[in-house]
Amino acid sequence: MRLAIALGLLLTSACTSPPAAVATSVPAAPAPTAPATTASATASRTTPTPSPTPSPTPVPKVPVLADAPVQTGLRLPWDLAFAPDGRMFVTERAGNVLIFESGAPNARRIGHYSLPNVRAQGESGLMGIAFDPDFARNGFLYVCASRVDEGEFRNQVLRLRATGNDIALDGFVIRAGMRAAAAHDGCIVRFGPDGKLWVTMGDSTVSRLAQDTASLNGKILRVNTDGSIPADDPVLPGRSAPSAIWSYGHRNPQGLAFQPGTGAVFEVEHGEDTHDEINVLEKGANYGWPLAQGPDPQGRFTDPVWTSGGVTIANSGAAFVTGAMWGLWSGSLFTAQLKDTDLRRYAVEGTKVTAAEILLDRKYGRLRSPVLGPDGALYVTTSNGTGDRIVRVVATQPP
Ligand SMILES: [Ca+2]
After folding, report:
1. C-alpha of residue 340 to centroid of ligand 1, in Å
2. 193: CA distance to ligand 1 center in Å?
3. In the chain, pLDDT over 90 holds for what percent of residues?
4. Is the pLDDT assigned to residue 6 strictly greater than 70?
5. Portion of the chain with pLDDT greater than 70, in percent
6. Do 398 and 388 form a contact (C-beta atoms < 8 A)?
7. How far is the CA of 24 from the centre of ligand 1 (A)?
8. 321 C-alpha to center of ligand 1: Å?
């Protein structure tokens, strides 16, 4: 069953050639008045002599969206990230890092790296990717992957080093302590505005680990890029010193996004058969899994700011959008849905999250990770198994 759409209407753009408009929407706020007309009319009434025309400040509007694949023929691309020079790096679950010249349509593939010892099955394999904030100088990037190492199946955070378009394994950030499984591996990596590396880690199908503060599974982790523990990480119940764990009680978090301006950490995780969640992460907080799903009626845990209620939609990745082209939608959170095969917008005020539009509904199949590109467009990976794509969603302001 589909969620009710709070507002806005959905236009499908069935079989048209890309780029095609995907959606328009009723504005959330009353329609803005046209600035130039109003301003000049007022000016002409009150000012008898001509005065310099003030440059009009555009009034933000609901954006017009256009979507089109920019890369095709991929196999389970999981995540992507843009280098400061505009190159687009894409992970494929099997263990590949693909480098494209840019995010432009059909941009040339200029590099390919295979991470060794990846075991890819179901929700495991090579997943998250993030660039070091100082990448232009040090060439470092970070991935999270399920690998066989020292005789164990582990999720690991690894540092890679790019020299031009050649990538080499540089070392481990987190080598041990994260069990891997065919499902519930989390494994999104993102840099926060605090310069720390944040990692989502699933319970690896052993749900009790999410409440075990001695285990790194079922957690959100926050570490320095060399794997050391930031001194301001929390001291969790049952421990005597800070650990890599920022928050716990998570089932399978596959989305992580930092709110522009505030730095608040929004996390998206899969529920079991109800209550997919969006959480705002507080230091040291317990988000309840597996003791509570969704809001806890007993008040023992930190409640999600949004849930899917009695159904699951399989919300995976998440990203905030910003920029003038997004107009009234700047500052919104977008999530990609696997099961419900769509892209959703949430209006966000502070930490209040309100479901808004459903976009790209059933158009590209399962959607995995949305990432804001350097051009302000949203790039989304599909996760269908064969013939997968990177879809670019461009927002423009209507005249
Ligand atoms: Ca929860």
Report:
1. 20
2. 24
3. 85
4. no
5. 86
6. no
7. 33
8. 25
Q: Which two tokens stand for residue 298?
A: 């007993």
Kindly list the domain boundaries of the chain, sorted by start residue: 20-26+57-396
State the pLDDT at residue 82: 98
The alpha carbon of 304 and the centre of ligand 1 are apart by a number of angstroms equal to: 6
Distance 287 CA to ligand 1 centre (A): 4
Which tokens go with 163?
């020299």
Report how far residue 139's alpha carbon sits from residue 124's, in angstroms, rounded to the nearest whole number.
26
Ligand 1 centroid–CA 270 distance in Å is 9
**57: pLDDT confidence band, cut at 50, 70 and 90?**
confident
The CA 207 to ligand 1 mean position distance, Å, reads 12
Tell how far the Cα of 307 is from the centroid of ligand 1, in angstroms.
9
Q: Which two tokens stand for residue 68?
A: 């089109």
Mean pLDDT of the chain: 90
| Alpha-carbon distances, residue 364 vs 27, 154, 294, 345 (angstroms) | 26, 31, 29, 17
Instruction: Tell whether the model's pLDDT for residue 243 goes beyond 90.
Output: yes
Q: Any idea which architecture 20-26+57-396 has in CATH? A: 6 Propeller (2.120)
70-76-81-85 Cα dihedral, nearest 10 degrees = -50
Ligand 1 centre distance from Cα of residue 99 (Å): 36
Other C-beta atoms within 10 Å of 325: how many?
A: 18
Q: Look at residue 137 and tell me whether its pLDDT is greater than 80.
A: yes
Distance 96 CA to ligand 1 centre (A): 32
Residue 116 has pLDDT above 50, yes or no: yes
The alpha carbon of 279 and the centre of ligand 1 are apart by a number of angstroms equal to 8
Euclidean distance between CA atoms 342 and 188, whole angstroms: 20
